[in-house]
Design brief:
Blueprint: E1 2-7, E2 10-13, E3 18-26, E4 33-39, E5 46-52, E6 57-59, E7 67-72, E8 77-82, E9 91-98, E10 107-108, E11 112-117
Parallel strand pairs: 2-11
Antiparallel strand pairs: 1-3, 3-8, 4-5, 4-9, 5-6, 7-8, 9-10, 9-11
């Protein structure tokens, strides 16, 4: 099993920045991809950014150039640096993890609220 704990959410004005952290524990050696997702009220959960164990990344078009995902393997932690935040970025942000060859994310954190005021 893998446990994920997010932190770093909060309230920020438009144009501001936040950094989210996702600390993993347990069978972290089984993790291949870690991703940040978000879910706004009344909307489906969407992938924001993901990073593989080798460091390859991908981003949703809506956050390209503003968000950066990174990982510190020594600390078993993944970060999401969010700059130039917009009100439409307001959502609960979740950290997810999946193993190699597994099509879906198996492990999830509890989520952290990000609110961007205009």
């Amino acid at each position: 099993q893998v446990q994920l704990v997010e932190s770093g959410g909060g309230l920020v004005q438009a144009g501001g920045s936040l950094r989210l952290s996702c600390a993993s524990s347990g069978r972290t050696g089984s993790i291949y991809v870690m991703g940040w997702f978000r879910q706004a009220p009344g909307k489906e959960r969407e992938l924001v950014a993901a990073i593989t164990s080798g460091g390859s990344t991908n981003y949703a078009d809506s956050v390209k150039g503003r968000f950066t995902i990174s990982r510190d393997n020594a600390k078993n932690t993944v970060y999401l640096q969010m700059n130039n935040l917009k009100p439409e970025d307001t959502a609960v942000y979740y950290c997810g993890a999946r193993g190699s060859g597994v099509p879906s994310y198996d492990y999830w954190g509890q989520g952290t609220q990000v609110t961007v005021s205009s």
